[in-house]
Every structure is written in C-alpha cells, then in structure tokens.
Amino acid sequence: MTIQRRPLRYLLIFAFILTLNSLAGAQSVERPDTSNTQHRIEGWIQHRNGRVGGARVRLLRMPEMRPITETFSRPEGQFVFTQVTEGDYAIETFETESFEATITNVSVRPPRGRPTAIPVFVELSLKPPPNTTPPGVVMADVDLDVPKAALKHFRAGMKALEKSDSDRALIELREAIRIHPKYYAARLELGRELRLQKLFQEAVKILQPLGQIAPRRVEAHIEYGIALLSLGHREAATDELRIAVQLQESNWAAHLYLGWSLLESDGEKAEPHLKRAIEIDEHKAARAHLALARLADAKGERQLALDHLDAYLALAPNAHDAEATRKLAERLRGHD
Fold it and tell me: pTM higher than 0.70, yes or no?
C-alpha cells in the first residue's frame, strides 16, 4: 500500500504549481444572429505581471448590454468568441479577489461579406491591498527624508506599473533607490516586481535591507521571506516569516508562507500556521488547503486530504491548477 501512495503524495506537494493545457470552453448563453456574415473576436486577458488564465469573460451586445455568450480565458490568457455578427459589443470581465471588473468596447464592422477576426486586449487592474499606502505617497513613518528627485522616479515607476510597463517601472524604481538607498517604499515595490518577474536573486538583494530600514513593518519581512523561499532558502525564509507573524499575528500571508517554509522540514509546526491562515482569510489563503492535503495524506488520513482538496476547488474552481487538483482528488478516491 505504501508503494501505491507514494507517487500521489509527491504530486500533492507540487499540485499548486501545475498548469492546465486548457480551461472550460465557451458556454453559450444566447447565440448571435447567424443570418449575416459571422466573425470572430480573439482576445487576451493580461495585467502587468503577465497573461491571466481562468478569467470569466462575457460578450455583451451594445447598447442594450444584452449577454450573448461567455467563456473563461485559457492558461495563456486567450479567449475566443465565434459566430459574432456585425455591430457594437463590450467585453466584460468580473471582479475577483485580485482584480477589478472591466468593460472593453469592441466594434465589429469589417468589410461586408468577408469573415474577419477582431483582436482585443483586455487589461486588468490589480485591487489595491488593504491598509497600504497609495502609489506615489511616501511612508510617513519611514520615508521622512526622501529627496525630490528620488520621489519623482518612484512616482514614475508606480505610474509605469499601472500601465503594465514593467521594464520602465524597474528602471525608475532602481533610480529612486540609487538616489536614496534607504527609500523603503521604492525598495518594497521594486523587490515585489522583481519577484513577480522571477528575478529572485535581485529581489533578495533589494529587499534584504528593509529589515534594517523598517524592522517593524510586517510587509517587509513577508516580501523578503517569499523571495528567499522562491530561491529555496527555507531556513532564512522561516526566520523572516516568523518575525512577520510576531509583528502581526492576524496576517494571513505571514502564516501561509511560514507554513509553506516549514512544510518540508517540520510538518507538525507547519500545520497550525496553515490552519491559522485559513481561519484568518480562507479565500486569500486557499492554497493552504493543498499543503494540508499533502500533510493529511502523509499521515494516512485520506478523507481529510480529500476534504482539503475539495475545499480548495470550491474556493478556486478556475485556478490554473484546478483541473490537476481534480485529477489528484480522483486518484486519491480510487486508491484502496
């Protein structure tokens, strides 16, 4: 029985990073009029950190805003609406935990008699984290002596991030730090963007001084801990994330990432942090269920592992790893 269970446990460890080949196809709500020439709308959902898969997208007929059809974006962010007749439309995306809702107008008026593919790019805006300083504003308790030149570059960097121009943002934020090395807000934003771009080594170098610049700022320790964890430096990450938990016990992210950092070395110590993250904010900490499923399976608690997998799927049914998680759950149910 141990031989049968071992591969499943290893798959559970990495379930949260598996990607799908495809997501659910379009589900027709109402078909457009097919009496005229039919066209295609080919679109991509994206934000400043890349393409967005699993986003719910709806096609509306304008000006009455009548729903025509809807689908989910594929892992690479692409979506397609077929059998579209000439006229004015809107592409609607829905508000999620991470993104604001959007409406993008599309005019389908190609030369008559010639089926045409209309390209559309939909830019999503990230929701501002709660209790954070608005872009372009210095942190009053730490950024007290920022030179005007550094502030100018910081604001330019934040504006570039809003426009999804990561390259420009990195240039501007690096310049702000060059002018004022102790610029807390600039280091935090630059480190986060470098991490999101998977430039982990540089992110660690940028974020490491934050512990001295603002030792009481919980987000500094969380960001630095995540960057260390991304490089596989689990012990150092654990130290930073423990500080974050001590600074703000009610922070779901601090508990979640501390749990992940402890997962390989000490499952018993990881478990309470993962459970606490779920208790604080289950939606934001949904991936804690994947780690808890792995721990339950390792202890032979199959039903508990299944409960956690099902809980994750209920919270994130359209996540990039949802289909892989469903398959893992099916395999677990099928094991004797």
Answer: no
